[in-house]
Amino acid sequence: MKKKHGLIIIDMIHDYLDSWDVEMAEGLIQNTNTLVASFRQRQLPIIWVRNEFKPDLSDAFLEMREKQVMVAIEGTRGARLHSGLQWSPADITVVKKRYSAFFGTDLDGLLAEHDVGSLVICGINTHACVRMATIDAYQRDFPVILAEECIGTYDDEHGRISLRYMKDKIAKVATISEIRSLIEMAAQPPSIGF
Fold first, then answer.
1. HEC assignment per residue over the chain
2. pTM of the model
3. Could you tell me if residue 109 is inside a domain?
4. Percent of the chain scoring above 70 in pLDDT
């Protein structure tokens, strides 16, 4: 059986996006929704990954604990996926405690269970969680595509450096249109030549 493309959307939660420039956040949300609709239309796996931490930060990473950074706290609006996103209960949601979507989560098992053989990754932040998930996926031998209009960061300089580092080494970078064409071609039954 042919392996599927899977879509991983990282950290598109209120606590992060609400602090962004409204126009920039809206553009990222709309582009992400366009990509999600393409995967949903073809019944391909959609995995939303988000941070969430206990109010006492006992499960948070070192910097958060040391500086008492209170973001993405469980039970708060801030830890929820942004309300403008087209999330569906049929989609998969993974809660993470570190930068990588793979670290300490069941993501490996979910990808195997849904027969995913390659990944499209989008979300925020390009220089941190997107980069870590992309590298970890690459280390697991997944071909990775970064959705160009669907990744973003609050740190433009480090975002550019990270993208330059990953591009054509760890991952391909493609537009929504290119990704749509790719998953459409993959959905076509093989032609039989005589």
1. CCCEEEEEEECCEHHHHCCCCHHHHHHHHHHHHHHHHHHHHCCCCEEEEEECECCCCCCCCHHHHHHCCCCCECCCHHHCECCCCCCCCCCEEEEECCCCCCCCCCHHHHHHHCCEEEEEEEEECHHHHHHHHHHHHHHCCCCEEEEEEEEECCCHHHHHHHHHHHECCCEEEECHHHHHHHHHHHHCCCCCCC
2. 0.94
3. yes
4. 96
